[in-house]
Amino acid sequence: MSILLKIIRYQFHDISRSKWIIIYTSFFFLVTYGLISFSNDTSKVIISLLNVTLIIIPLVSIIFGTIYLYNNKDYIILILSQPIKRNVLYLGLYFGLTIPLALSFLLGVGVPILLFSRDLKENFEVLVFLFTAGIFQTFIFVSISFLIATLNENKILGLGLSIFCWLFFSVLYDGLLLLVINLCQDYPLEKILIGFTILNPVDLARIFVTLKLDVAALMGYTGAVFQKFFNGNLGNFISLLSLLVWLVIPLLLGIRKFFKKDF
Amino acid sequence: MLNRNGNNSPFYLPQRGSKKDFSIILSNFSEKDSCRAVVFLFIWFFNFYFLSETLSAKNIHVGAHQKIRTIQSALKIISNGDSVIVEEGTYKEKSLLIDKSIILIGKNSPVLSGENKYEIMKIKADNVVVKGFIFKDTGLNFIFDNAAIKLDSVTNCTIEKNIFVNNFFGIYLSRSSRCKIIGNELSASQTKETYSGNGIHLWQCREMIIQKNKIEGHRDGIYFEFVKASTIEENKSENNLRYGLHFMFSDSCKYSGNFFKKNGAGVAVMFTRNVDMHNNRFEYNWGGAAYGLLLKDISDSRIFENDFVKNSCAIYYEGCSRVTTHNNNLTENGTAIRLMANSMDNSFSYNNFIGNSFDVTTNSTRNYNSFENNYWSEYKGYDLNKDGIGDIPHRPVKLFSIIIERNRPSLILIRSLFVELLNAAENIFPSLTPQTLIDSKPQMKRYL
Predict the structure, then answer these.
(1) Would you say A216 and B286 are in contact if contact means Cβ atoms under 8 Å apart?
(2) pLDDT (tens digit, 9 = 90+) per residue, A107-117?
(3) Suppose B237 and one of B221, B284, B330, B438 were both cysteines; which one would form an S-S bond, judging by CB atoms 3.0 to 4.6 Å apart?
(4) What ipTM does the predicted assembly reach?
(5) Do the chains contact at A218 and B358, CB–CB below 8 Å?
(6) Chain B residues with beta carbon closer than 8 angstroms to that of A54
(7) B357: nearest CB among A50, A189, A214
(8) A215-227: buried (b, 16+ CB within 10 Å) or exposed (e) per residue?
(9) What residues of B are in contact with residue A185 (Cβ under 8 Å)?
(10) Arch. (CATH architecture) of B59-235
């Protein structure tokens, strides 16, 4: 355990000094500050922040994660020559990357909101959802990126797969869903759609926050079904479970592959 | 003979103003027609006495400590123009029938109870005033539509500053004109639409004034059917089971300064010409069939300076023509404007559209209405010549709203990146959204 903490601490220091993490933080800071100062409408700010969270965080996490593992190959080989378990090293690298990424998101978005937002209390609940969503996105997509990077020796292929993965979750999946919805127009699709949404971590985060924001629009039958599910205890539990599965399964698969990997 | 002021002079001057008339009469007093003048004066004084006698209305006090204990018995001895002053206490009088022009005043809010069985008061005479009572517990009766106060075929009545609690219908007017309903508070607590009556119900009336009332928990807060030339002002209608204001076949009416909040289905205005709706506020009307303002078959009307905040659908137009909608604020609604294909020649100008999920939705691929000079918070254009008007026109109808129109479950994709991309593509090459539904002069800054 102490070795794990040591690795995490080392990685944390290493990454905190990286210019990319500083750029990442300041990007969030500037975007949030800009949105707050240019718009008087808090719910509009939150919607824009949601878009940023759902597009930028998965993209940055997955690409950063892949590159990070490739770039640290020498370091990994060096550490593995020591009496350190492989899963400890893998987890150390994982948390060493995700914690700074998540922190920089929290600071970049949280600080300007705390400092400059006027009606913070009104939207407190939505903001909590937004932050939770952002942190989960970071953890899930880094874990996927680590899996991709361990599976593929070829850097170009790995990076390509990562980008495709991001594209699939944020854009293509919804396109496919829309296709399914249109093909099966005559059937009551609400419950099946909830199932499909839960399968995609990006969609899940999006629907959670929009249900809080766009209540008025969603109040039809369809909206009522979604609302009932996602605001109920069972819905919350299943959603959380799905997010955790998305986090844990790639991580475990990655560790398994990492054990057998010949560097 | 002593007159009322104890002055026994035959030349008693009743009022200051009439002094002049009197001197004119005296100056005309010549020998020639002295006889005629004497007769004239005699008639003049006689008239004065007669009139003053009728004008001297009686005041009858009713109360537990008075000679007359019930309003019912007071009504028997009363004549036109008298006042009944009812003192504190609870009166169970079954149904009161008022068929004389009297003034009924409640002192320290006496309670008139219908004991959950009766209609409380029925007014069948003109010029009646009812003021300062608490009306409570009319029975539920679907045949007679029991109301706390029912006015039938009267003119010029006033119902003022009363409190109505737990009644079936509150104030029910039919075939009446020029009445005033001012400053009443109505509340009811039924939970089912079918077991609840309307707060203020008008049927076949003319020139009525409904002002500063508060209505809560009824079926429809204010109900207008076949009413002409009336005004509804500064009322507050909230938490009603169906509509805050239900308005049908009522031409040339006007409602302004009202506040409608959290009503089951919002406000409905139907089958009417020439209505003015201004300065009202429509708030939090949520539900699949709830509208801030539902307009059906409305023509030649004006909607201006209203605030629509957080409604599922702010304004719904069906079969409307020549309705002008200007200077309104539409903020954070699900759908700000829902415009059905059978609406024509309506104009939308100088409105603020701020933070709505959908600004305009329609089921039509064509457009016969005009949008101009509105402010759209969704507008992404620019203004190079700095004249405050965006250089490229704005298309308020999104592709996604049309997808939802055809297929409700696709709502689950709201705010998805994929949908945003589709919207952007449609915006550049419109194929499914109405091509001519554009605001060619979108404002860069919101109207204050």
Answers:
(1) yes
(2) 999 998 888 87
(3) B221
(4) 0.85
(5) no
(6) 417
(7) A214
(8) bbbbbbebbebbb
(9) 406-407
(10) 3 Solenoid (2.160)
